[in-house]
């Protein structure tokens, strides 16, 4: 398994960060320009990653103010799990971590790990920008 992660501190309480992340409609605002054909509900999202794949994901697990896990609802190019964890820092700020766990063979790892790292870094930075 390949684990790709990015962590950011957000100047908002954990409940506010969790509430934002728990609605898949908000995730479109976290995506880079190479994501298009976005459709979402509170629990599910479908989108196309330019030159890569179409993905349909849904939130499969919620632990309030702690973590959210999303998994593919349709056949994906590889097994993948997307997880956000949020931790209350005790001072009104929250540490948010975005973790993608993917079952990549060596060829896919060489092709996909760079773009996936860019994706998680972009999403955590956007989260910080949006929520301040």
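-> sequence recovered:
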């Amino acid at each position: 398994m390949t684990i790709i992660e990015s962590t950011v501190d957000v100047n908002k309480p954990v409940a506010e960060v969790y509430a934002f992340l728990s609605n898949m409609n908000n995730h479109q605002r976290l995506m880079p320009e190479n994501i298009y054909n976005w459709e979402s509900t509170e629990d599910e999202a479908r989108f196309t990653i330019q030159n890569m794949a179409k993905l349909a994901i849904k939130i499969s697990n919620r632990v309030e103010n702690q973590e959210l896990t999303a998994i593919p609802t349709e056949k994906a190019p590889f097994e993948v799990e997307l997880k956000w964890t949020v931790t209350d820092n005790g001072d009104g700020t929250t540490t948010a971590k975005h973790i993608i766990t993917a079952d990549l063979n060596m060829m896919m790892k060489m092709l996909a790990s760079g773009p996936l790292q860019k994706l998680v870094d972009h999403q955590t930075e956007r989260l910080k920008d949006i929520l301040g």
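The two ends are 33 Å apart (CA to CA).
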